[in-house]
Amino acid sequence: MPSPRILIAEIAAAHGIKGFVKLTYFGEDIRDTEDYNPFFTTESGANTLVLQVKNAIKGGYVAAIDGITDRTQAEALRGTRLYIERSKLKQPEENEYYHTDLVGCVVLENNIEIGKVIAVDDFGAGALLDIRPASGSSFYLPFKGDFVGTVDIAAKTIHVSIPDGLLEGR
After folding, report:
1. How buried is 165 (Cβ within 10 angstroms: 0-12 exposed, 13-18 middle, 19+ buried)?
2. pLDDT (tens digit, 9 = 90+) per residue, 7-55?
3. Could you tell me the pTM of the whole model?
4. Do 79 and 104 belong to one domain?
């Protein structure tokens, strides 16, 4: 069963002297943050923060947090991960998936298990599945049609086609 909360942002650093923070946002549209308040500071939902996004800056966004009024308080929040209730997210379109739902999926080629997804990364050219086989080091596989076939989130399986030579020499 998917987690009831989804990681959506992280506080990267303090910004200025008035208690603002630099926010790294993992969602599609930063304007959605108003609908996501309050943000949880743990996946279990122990503490909450209310944010107001001020503007975009290089590599992220500047945000104000209710109750945070100076740089020292803002610095103390550095590295804080921000989660939202999964129910606040729209349902993904057909053949779209939340990265968090792909992590932990068993990866199969020709119905033979080749590993599990340990992360989903995107360095700018599209999503990559980080797959950890039973032995050896992990490897990346592009998350697109030529390489990925059936994805079954309920069964936690992803059927793939590994290109010739990708796993040689490992």
Report:
1. exposed
2. 889 999 999 999 999 999 888 788 888 888 999 998 877 789 999 999 9
3. 0.71
4. no
